[in-house]
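note to self — DONT lose this again. spent like an hour looking for the file last time. sequence + predicted structure for the chain T wanted, 291 res
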Amino acid sequence: MKLPYRNAHFFVLLALALTFIAFWPSYFSSMRMAPFAFHAHGLATTIWICLVALQSWSIHRGAVAFHRWVGGFSLLLFPPIIASFVLIINVSAARFVSGESPFFEQAGPILGFVMLTAIVAYLLLFTLALRHRMNVRLHGLYMLATAVILAESAFGRLLQQTIPSMSFDGSGDFRSALDSIVIPDILAAVAAMVIYFRNREYGLPFLLAALLITIEVVGIYLFADAAWLHQAFALYSRVPEWLSVGIGFGFGVAAVWIGWSRPITAAALEQRIPAADCMQSGARMGFGTNS
């Protein structure tokens, strides 16, 4: 069976390189001064991007054993990934309630919302990637879709470096800073939709990614100044960090368990995908119908 996007790992690695460039001024050039949350999130997401690239490369080269080994590591990495997203939300909450700057008093809650939508997207996409692991095409595209969710952050930082009014350091305009999230989001959603329309049979992962990104964009415009969101974020800031991070970690564990324990088998896939495709997919991955 010919697999799509044979060179996808090159684009994933390009996104990783752009991430280093984008976050150099605000993080990599001053790592000693960064809070622990930034280190945890940066390390976890960097490893994840490399993992997605390795997964794509290995299955296209026929290195099934290595592919499965890396896939097993993703099961261990995923809960810390979700916990690291929660840590970033907690940083925004702390800056919001401390009145660190007028900017974070305005932007803190909506930045928390943005990270929350990213958590939901990751939980959903990875759970579905695991459930569809017997079909290489769908499994691989769900994994690649997680990289699309992360790409927004890097492109947003590049915009902030290019357009000072979009800066998140507190000196920029609130609305312009939010545009540095919205613009990359829109571009990512459009790219995901293009991929979907080019291959509707297997494009559902990117349609779902586009939908989740669109929800984030709409939420930014609707809720940025919402009093209820500010009140909710203030209440959230009172939650002990060990509890919020533990809950995030728990959701990550639940996603792994649900995705792994409830695979969509060949019999179910035959309803939408030719039986030969399903059998070839499962055989190539080394899974039987009872795995």
